[in-house]
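DATA CLASS: polypeptide
GOAL: derive structure tokens

***
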Amino acid sequence: MKSLAIEREFGSGGREIGKKVAELAGISCYDGSLMAQVAETKGLSLDMLKEYDEKKTGSVLYNISLLASYNYSRNNSQVFELYYELQKTIKSLEMQGPAVFIGRSSTEILRDSPRTVRVFIYSSDMDKRIERIVRTENVSPDQAKKMMDKKERERRDYFKFWTDKDWSDKANYDMALNTSVLSTDDCARILLSAIKGTAV
């Protein structure tokens, strides 16, 4: 069985799909909580990051990249040290056995691994994305649209910052799944088959 690395549009259901695959396969799933753990091992206070992050992005490593831009001379080396530590951690976990990695440019960190399937999950139906965000975040449709635009920009900028690549370029991935035509269960089944190397 292979590992799975996921990048996803906000509101596409990508996190839900990743967790479903991990549950079905009986393997670990790593997302933002892993990033917080890496930050803690480096002694970087999440409260300190929030002081520098006027946008309140909610993304630990994106906050760190912003922190570097606010106070380059003092924090820049620590920022890059932390990202490289994140790379080492993800690669080490992948070497230990199959797992699901969600976001944080894990698709690029594991790009050269023959043991990892890399996928981009998106939705071509804007209304469906907004409906999902309204449901999962308990916000109004207008708030959902603002959240979607903000998260989209953050994820695109984060990916570009660390990889110098276009986050939504399908050439970066082994496959792309559209949740406007596939259910999250369908996607989980397809990806489970992909990491197991079996027919769908």
